[in-house]
């Protein structure tokens, strides 16, 4: 199964810039430190395939070493974010796989979420229209989610006879919107509207569809201009502390903050404050 190996040879090596990377299964561009990843099959509401899953996994792994990328925006072409796994290119073939093949696939899709959570750059998802199944998990694995009133987010795994625990949904969703609300969505598979998603804390904000991507990119650009080493540390702690008690978390944050205090960005901020200037962060 080729998709299990992905295509790492197409990606730059450690600490090499990704600006010149040409994606094969979606659009990818880097400008002013912000990488914009666009799922680009609008005629099918941007579904995922075996190969696009694999490329996403390898790309997010490579982003951990990309010095030219400070923040990431993920969105969908057209008027939808992502309709999940392609019915014809994924769901059909899965019905013919044996158990080892099925487990290899589900572990591979979970690795996409792991890679998104492990890369140090903040990820901003711009979600318009349909955001379903694996698409909802790409949104959930992001750090910040912007939506529209017409956004329809559905963890619809039970609609196709599967459990609602796909790709880390049962771990991530309750932490974002609460246990009871997550349970309802994961059991029912129903769509959550944009207004409901904002009220429940799934969306950080809602924008008009025509302004959505620009708002996401503007916020990502503001993050890219900030203390990016410290942002990476914040993201690390946000994830790592889920498995800690309070005392362990306080000690971990003491260590993380001490490391940040040794950075040049911390010193730049101090000297800028003394000079009554705005600091210019460089991520070191």
UniProtKB/TrEMBL annotation:
SUPFAM superfamilies: ClpP/crotonase. GO terms for molecular function: catalytic activity. It comes from the Bacteria. InterPro entries: ClpP/crotonase-like_dom_sf, Enoyl-CoA_hyd/isom_CS, Enoyl-CoA_hydra/iso, Enoyl-CoA_hydra_C. Belongs to the enoyl-CoA hydratase/isomerase family. PANTHER family: EG:BACN32G11.4 PROTEIN, ENOYL-COA HYDRATASE. This is Enoyl-CoA hydratase/carnithine racemase. It comes from Pseudoduganella violacea.
